[in-house]
Amino acid sequence: MTWRNTPDNFGLVTRLLHWLMAIGILFLLALGTRLAGMQPGLANLWLYGLHKSIGLCLLALVVIRLVWHRISPPPSPIGDPRALSQRLARWGHALIYILLLAIPLSGWIASSASGIDTVLFETWTVPRIAPVSAAWENAGWAAHGLLTKLLMAVLLVHVAAALKRQMDGDGTLRRMWSGGN
Ligand code: HEM
Ligand code: HEM
Fold first, then answer.
1. What is the DSSP string of 104-137?
2. % residues pLDDT > 70 (the chain)
3. Is pLDDT above 90 for 63?
4. Count of helix runs (H) and strand runs (E) in the chain
5. Radius of gyration for the chain, computed over Cα atoms and rounded to the nearest angstrom
6. Ligand approaching nearest to the C-alpha of 10
7. CATH 3.40.50.10810: does it fit domain 12-177?
8. Whole-model pTM?
9. Is the pLDDT of residue 8 over 80?
10. Which mutation among 59, 76, 176, 177 tests ligand 2's pocket best, with the greatest number of atoms within 8 A of CB?
11. Average pLDDT estimate for 101-118
């Protein structure tokens, strides 16, 4: 078992980050959708705090993941790198990374613009990254809503593609799950 990625396989660090973040993102997509339909009040304020705190942790994790991939590049999708499906897989992964940066940033911008402090797990007040302003707040929430819908659509295709490759038996899912062993 190796920590680092190799030209053919995902190492332990990338695999742990992938599955930890997948669980976190699915949880936040569900929780965020619930929050969007709620009226904020004293009884549910902790749910907003939980969503924001996990979202900021995921932002930190995606930065760590991208830095790790500079240090230890992940393998290319299995198969001919010039084939359309392989190119689509690479573009799809790049789009997921862009969304995983843009979504928490838009939430952080909108929360900052609302003037309400964002407190990480009720202990540390994170800095504001946008001026307190209704225009910034509305734009931030609009972007957060839109980008999360786009992420849901891209992830549906991502999971369907992974399951299809599993059924074809090309080892793609196995190397993300167990490093190809
Ligand atoms: C990867 C990280 C994140 C994901 C996947 C995510 C996902 C979502 C989703 C799906 C919604 C519902 C949007 C809608 O239907 O309009 C939502 C709402 C919300 N998000 Fe996030 N979010 C993330 C990060 C953050 C961060 C970092 C913050 C703030 C610091 C934040 C604050 C909020 C708030 C306050 C709402 C409720 C907005 C409302 O009441 O309409 N989110 N989120
Ligand atoms: C739900 C949140 C998920 C996110 C955000 C996500 C994101 C990603 C990203 C960014 C990569 C590219 C890794 C790289 O090479 O840099 C990847 C690879 C992969 N993901 Fe996911 N993923 C998620 C869920 C899943 C699920 C549920 C499955 C399984 C059904 C899955 C199966 C895979 C596989 C097999 C690969 C490797 C693809 C290859 O070798 O080309 N992912 N994922």
1. HHHHHHHHHHHTPPPEETTTEEPPP-S-S-HHHH
2. 99
3. yes
4. 5, 2
5. 18
6. 2
7. no
8. 0.96
9. yes
10. 176
11. 97
Side chain identity at 42, as an amino acid letter? L
Q: Does residue 2 or residue 180 have the better pLDDT?
A: 2
Looking at residue 1, its pLDDT comes to: 66
User: Phi and psi at residue 125, in whole multiples of 5°?
Assistant: -80, 120
Ligand 2: which of 158, 170, 173, 178 to mutate, most ligand atoms within 8 Å of CB?
158
Q: Kindly state the average pLDDT of the residues 156-165.
A: 96
Contact 125, 118 (CB under 8 A): yes
Q: Do the Cβ atoms of 71 and 130 come closer than 8 Å?
A: no
Burial zone of 69 (CB within 10 Å; 0-12 exposed, 13-18 middle, 19+ buried) = middle
